[in-house]
Amino acid sequence: DLYRKVFVFRKDPSDAYVVLRAQLERPLHNFTVCLRSYTDLSRPHSLFSYATRAQDNEILLFKPKPEEYRFYVGGKFVTFRVPEGRGDWEHVCASWESASGIAELWLNGKPRPRKGLQRGYTVGATAAILLGQEQDSFGGGFDLYNSFSGELSDVYVWDSALSPDKMRAAFLSLRLPPALLAWNSLSYEVKGDVVVKPRLRE
């Protein structure tokens, strides 16, 4: 249970990452990924990378620069412009639904304008899920200069597009629906220089 704890990625650039294990029984037609990050990086970095053997950017949450998030589904991406962070924790949730092809990005409990992405697509179930690196091949192919350095916390993945109420609840760390991956019952393996520490402040 990682309640009130964080992963600290100590080096910059870094070859370290965290492997997440999820029980995915079937392909995803909808999903939501949420996490909190704390970093002073201004270079591009990967937050959440979900690769299948067919597609290395099956799901990717990537930050090319401080005022932009890139959200990939099935190798295609949309860009969300965001206010540049003020050196504090950022809570981001990205959701997608196949039927409408609607991609949403919520930053610190507020939605950005919705975008269209990969309508009718299906996300594969046999996946390598990593924090802190961007996969260019299944479980590998890292570019050090896309690595994450800083602190990550509160990582969740659901097999549905969360409602606005639940998006706000995720930001406020309130009760959340059962998840495929949940921070308070995370099955993970640290690879390299990543340390689990208590959160410094709420």
From TrEMBL:
InterPro entries: ConA-like_dom_sf, Pentaxin_CS, Pentraxin_domain, PTX_dom
Disulphide bond pairs: C34-C93
One MF annotation (Gene Ontology) recorded for this entry: complement component C1q complex binding
Gene3D superfamilies: 2.60.120.200
Cofactor note: Binds 2 calcium ions per subunit.
One of the GO biological process terms: acute-phase response
Domain of life: Eukaryota
Pfam families: Pentaxin (PF00354)
Gene Ontology CC: one annotated term: extracellular space
Domain Pentraxin (PTX): from-to ranges: 3-202
Keywords, in A-Z order: Acute phase, Calcium, Disulfide bond, Metal-binding, Secreted, Signal
UniProt xrefs under SMART domains: PTX
Compartments where located: Secreted
Required cofactor(s): Ca(2+)
Family listed: Belongs to the pentraxin family.
Assembly information from the UniProt record: Homopentamer. Pentaxin (or pentraxin) have a discoid arrangement of 5 non-covalently bound subunits.
Official protein name in the record: Pentraxin family member
Native species: Oreocharis arfaki
